[in-house]
Sodium transport system permease protein
Amino acid sequence: MWLVFLKEIKELVRDKKTLFFMIAVPILVMPAFAGVAIYFAHSAATEAQNKVLNYALVGGQYAPNIDTEMLKTEGFARVEIEQDADYKELIKSQTVDFILEIPANYSNDILQSGQALIKLHLNDSGLNRVFNRVNDIVDAQVKLLRQTAFSQLSLSEDQQIALLKPIILEKVNTADTRENWGEKIGGLIPYFIFILCLQGAMFPAADLGAGEKERGTLETLLISPIERYKLVLGKFLTIAFAGLTSALITVTSLALWGLILSQGMAIEFVVAFMSSIGSVDFILMFLMLVPVVAIFASILLSLSIYAKSYKEAQSYMGTLMMLLFVPIFLAMAPGVELKGVWAWVPLTNVALAIKELIKGTMDYFQLIAIFGSTALIATGLLAFCIYWFNKEKVLFR
């Protein structure tokens, strides 16, 4: 068994593609992808904020202050339209970005005219910031009208504040920064960890089964004086080693990036959140991944043994990756917590446990049951893999 394991490991480290997915992706590629995504999102938001908006003002004579303010505000360009124009068609054809419709009852004396409903016609399907930019101008006019009305009523400053907000509901959050942000983003971290672990094990698994068939070296292994279950265990350990390496590098990378961020290279809440996660929690995350990787290794090896070719094995494994989304998405669903039946759902319970470790609210005694149940499933799948490898009709399809 160990001879097979050492042989496969030597071949594994010679495969640059496998090493890339095991090492480079967790350390560099995923953070780079995240950085690029954040950069482009920020660029798109900045572009939308600075874009010059073409607009039309209907009923501008009723609100000369708004008309004047928009004309002198940078980033707005007024377009004249016909009185009976089709607003929707003008916006669709990009003749204007929005149309502001002022009602006839608009007045600077709100005590006499009452509330006015201004309509903003726009296509709000994309990131355009139109509403926010127009709302800033309208809000400025609202404050002026409000101050005029308060002056007419001769209200003091305290009376004005009490009239605007007679009751204030103050939120006192008992959750600390770690628990608060762990609840918001803690479900995403198991998603990336599981995907990277599976991906790190996929490539060696496809090669150790289907790849051996294509190269014609599987028959040589079968006639060697080694019991078949030892061949399976040797290949299983190789795949599990690859997956665990990806898991270790992923968790280590997460800890290192957290350390970097905690040194002041990120915004304040990220620094506070990442620096609050202790080294013990990172170690427990890695230990929880050990039986998960064993599950992945058993399933992947079984699929690879069954496949006729390397390409067929990859198609099976691609389907497995899509199926993996189900238990992960369950862990991110609202109301799903590490209690009751969810504590026994395979993979979902591990994802929930990692989320609780990130939040700092983990009941550590639950880890024993979760680890034990996951290890039991992994053992059963490994036994099935050995049984599968002993079937001639599977090996020589």
